Amino acid sequence: MPENGRTATRRQVFARTAALSASIAFAGDLSELFAGTAAAQSLGHRGYGPLIPDPNGLLDLPKGFRYRVLSREGDQLRSGEGPVPSNHDGMAAFAARPGDRHGRVHLVRNHENRVTATIPVPTVEGLTYDPMGKGGCTSLTLDRHGEVLAERVAIAGTAVNCAGGPTPWGTWLTCEETEDQAGTNGYTKDHGFIFEVDPADPHRTGAVPLTAMGRFQHEAIAVDPKLGIVYETEDAFLKPFGLFYRFLPAKPHGGTGSLRAGGRLQAMRVPGVPDLSSVQEPGAAFDGIEWVDVPDPLATRTPVRLQDFGPKGITHAQKLEGCYWGGSCVYFVSSFARSADGSAADHFGQIWRYDPSARRLTLVIVFGPGTDVQLPGESPDNICLAPSGGLMVCEDGNGAQHVFGVTRRGEVYAMARGAQNIGTPQAPEWGEFAGVTFSPDGGTMYVNCYTPGTTFAVTGPWRG
C-alpha cells in the first residue's frame, strides 16, 4: 500500500506546448533530483526556444546552439585498429586525470552490437573477452577545445553493450543486455555481465567480467559514492520482467579493480507490489523495502528473474533502463509498461526514487502520453542530470527522435531532434538518441545517435 494508505505529498504539473503536446506528472520535492550545480538558477525555465532546422540535415537545435560531429560509424579509428563500430549507445564523460595539465576529457561510448552487427568492435589483444562478441566500448580523448585527439577500442568481444554508468573512482561500468551462454549464437563464453573500463588506460582494466554482479539482461548502474553500493537495472521487455538490484561489494571503498573482489547481489522486494506498473499515482511511497539475496547470480540454469525468491515473491517491472545517483538517493527508469505484454497496467514512462537511509521507494515522475504528436507515448530511456538543473531525456521510440529537457516545474521542451529533411544524401533516417552526458565543466552536451552511429558535441548558451 502507499504510505498511510494514500498518495503522499502529491504535486501534479501538466505541461502542454503546441510543439510537443507533452505531459509529465511530478510528485513532492525534487530539489535533490534537479539540483544540478551550485550555480544553477534556472530550474523552472521553459527551455531554449523552438528547434531550428539544420541546413546540413543532421541535428536540429535551438537558436544559439551548434554541434560538431566527433565520430561516425564506419570512419577509421584514429588508433588504426579498424572502423568506428556501429550502434552507439550509453556514454559518459570523465575529467582529466590528476597531473594532466592539458585539461583533456575522456568519453567512453558503448556499442550495442549483436551477432548481426555490420561493424563490430575490433578485437585488440588484452582487451577482448570473447572473440565472437561484436560489442564493446570505444574511448575518445578530447583536448580543452573539444577537438578529438585520440579514438581507440576500450573493450571488445562483449555483446549488446547497452548502457552502464560511471563510478566515483573514474571508471565506466559497461553492461551486457543479453543472457546468451557459451555455444549460443557462436559465442565461446557466457555473456550477460558487467565489465569495468578505464577511460584513459583501457589495458589497466582489461576485459574481465565482474561475475559476482550477476549475469542477466543488464541495462544501467549507479553507485552510492559513500557506501560503494552499486544499483543495477534489468531491461526485460517480455514477461517475466526485470528486477532492480543492488550489489554489496566486499571492498566497498575500493578503487579501480576493487569490484573483482566479489560481493553479494540482492533484488528489491516492495511488500505487496509484485509489479511496479500497478502504481500509477505520482507520490505513491512505500516503506520497509526489502532486499533479497539472489539464489544464483550466475544464472547457471535459470535466469535470475525466474529464480525462487521465497513465498513472498519478488518485485518485477517492464523495461527498467536508466539509473543514476542524485543527492542521497538512487533514481531508476521504467521506460514503459504495456498490459498487452503482461504488465499489470500501462504507462508511458516512470522515474522511481529509492532512499536507502529511509528504505523508502517513491514514484516521483510519470511520463506521457503525448511526447510525440504523431506517435504519443514515446518513452524515456537514457537520462542524465543537466549541470544547470533539470533533466535531459533521450527518447526511445518510432517517429521523430528527440532529446527532451524537463524542468523542475514539469515543463517539457525539445533540446535536440534528428533532422527532418529525410531523404537527402546528407540526412540519414536517425534512430534513437542515447548516451546523453555533459562535459565536466558543464559547457558541452555529448549525445549519440544510435543508428547510423554518430557522436555529437553540442555547445551554446547553457544557463548556469
UniProtKB/TrEMBL annotation:
Keywords: Signal. Residues 1-27 form the signal peptide. The keyword Signal applies. It comes from Streptomyces siamensis. Pfam families: PhoX. The lineage of its organism: Bacteria, Bacillati, Actinomycetota, Actinomycetes, Kitasatosporales. This is PhoX family protein.
